[in-house]
Amino acid sequence: MFFKKGISVDNIFENNLVALARVNTKLAEELVVSPINTKYEVCVGNDKANINIVDIKNNFKPLYLTNSILENTELLKNLEEKSNYKFLYFYGVGNGVFYKMLLKAFGSLEQVFIFEPELELLKIVFSLIDFSKEIESEKLFFMNSKTFTFDNSIRIHSKRDDIAVYAKLYELIPLLSYYEEEHKNNLLDVNNINIRALEHIFFTMGNSPEDSLIGLEHHIANLPYMVTTPTLDELVKKVTNTSTVIIVSTGPSLSKQLSRLKKIQDNVTIFCADASFSILSDYGIIPDVVFSLERIALTAEFYKNTPAEFHKKPLFCITSIAHRELLDSIKSSNIQLSMRAFHYLHYFDTPNWGPLGFGMSVANMAFELVQLSNFQNCVFIGQDLSYGKDGNTHAKGTVVGTSDLEQDDKDTIEEVEAYGGKGFVKTKPIWKAFKTYLEQDMPHVSKKMDVYNCTEGGARIKGTKEISFDEFIEKNVSDNKKKKIVLKKPSKKFIEKNRENYLKKLTRMKEYILKVKKETESVFLNLMECLESIEDHNKKGKLDDIDFKIIERIIEDIDRVKIYFKDKEFYSIVYDFLKSEIMSQELNIAKIQIKKTTSKEDEKAKAVEWLYVHKFWLFSLAGGMEAILTSINRGMNEWQ
């Protein structure tokens, strides 16, 4: 029932509010204080579902032009082609009745996202219709579209991986013409935010399972060493040795800041990207912490090309997926290893060494450590995130070279707002992703410290204070000397305990993968046999003789394999490696899944198509698990 008999308006609103507070506390708080009966009036017809709402401050403009029941029914009819969708997006709550009708009619729907620009309208609807069960289960997810941000969109789309699977089907549907006419700009803003968020999620998934597998191999190879290095807790506790930390990146503008940085190096804490390390050493600047994030051997060059005397003082904060050649190139034992925020790393249950490195760049990693620290000021220099005016990508003197704009793919080049809001600068997707991660963190960091962008060039990083490096130094840097960061290493007993733990985890990991791999291969072989039979029948022109019970049985077997994707253990030790490969296939599978069928022939054709699209899916999954086992064994062999 849409409306419950005997329940007062106040009780309905309270039920909805309590449910909302559990899933979206901020919106619940906004609704409590928002006014009612100031802009809208409610008109109810003889049928309680025939509710119209009138905008009294806009020439008494009604939300529904005719009968609301007829208009809601017509909209539902127009959406019939989407009846197999799992996720839908709407702009506007209207009178709320449509969403009860939608959930009743579209049985496949798992979640409906509703963006409403007028809190008064939402409050009216929450006083008329009990949505408490749908809200609490997140079947209906209501949001204030006027305060909706990119960060919000990332959050709602990251809760479930299968939301991203349907990204190609994304569409923000205006509920009524009223919303298109009165809130067009906000509607477009929300739509652009969601598209950007989905693009960002896909970009950060990567496009190469090989990279993840290399990371696993390196992590396992480094495990025995990692647990002998200081913990992340120890680093966080002792890293704040001045009031100001300066994060040094390798953007084209870095060169102009180096002479200033050298003068104050004894009075501030310097975090630097590995690529900046050799540049700083050339200027006689010794950083306090040097960060390395990547898994490739090339990063070792950042250390090989730096004189040994510059390795004595800094702490080298390295991720556990680093190549062994990188670790061997550091001419110091002052090393701390941390795990990145990958699910498979946390499977090893060594939380004392992570996570650190949620973002995609070394600057992101450094900024994450800043968030955990107690500095008063954080400063970015060399953080251009764009091509320089001369088209160069990096500062002069960097080991990776200063490739220019002309060498990059023109189709991927984008423009973003420039530093200081002075026009636009050219950037590329990877830098844009780095920038996005920094901007996502800004609201949390700015509550505890001041964050300055003193790059004086490049792209604008929203949330930072843009001032010149000279001005910052004059106002915030004193003559106080800093202390060296000295970390305590774990005890032998603690090291041994963690070694025993990860050995047990590795054994369990291999057993689990072998079990799922065996089951997947069995389903794949049965599928291939079935497809050969279908093709043989097709050649003979006897498709009607196909036993569809066999096809149905194999579809059930595929579904049983897919159940593993809901298992946390599978997610950590299988899917996390293969998600870029599997996800690209799932995007096409989703298109078949939502196809409407109107006859038995259509259903049979869809079933056969379903088998064919899962042929490579099962092959990739089984092959991927074999590759994971190979990486585990290679990593363990490195212990010798």
Task: Describe this entry's structure for a reader.
The chain is of the alpha/beta class and 640 residues long. The chain has 3 domains: 9-205, Rossmann fold (3-Layer(aba) Sandwich); 241-269 and 370-477, no CATH class; 492-637. It has 24 helices and 17 strands. The strands form 4 sheets. Strands 12-11-10-9-8-13-16-17 form an 8-stranded parallel β-sheet, with helices on both faces. Strands 6-5-4-7 form a 4-stranded parallel β-sheet. It has a 3-stranded antiparallel β-sheet with strand order 1-2-3, with helices on one face. Helix 4 links the parallel strand 4 (87-91) and strand 5 (111-116). Helix 11 packs antiparallel against helix 23 (568-593), helix 21 packs antiparallel against helix 22 (548-563) and helix 23 (568-593) packs antiparallel against helix 24 (600-637). The longest helix is centred in the C-terminal third of the chain and has 48 residues, at 492-539. It starts with 8 loop residues before the first helix and ends with a helix. The model is unreliable at 3-7 (pLDDT under 50).
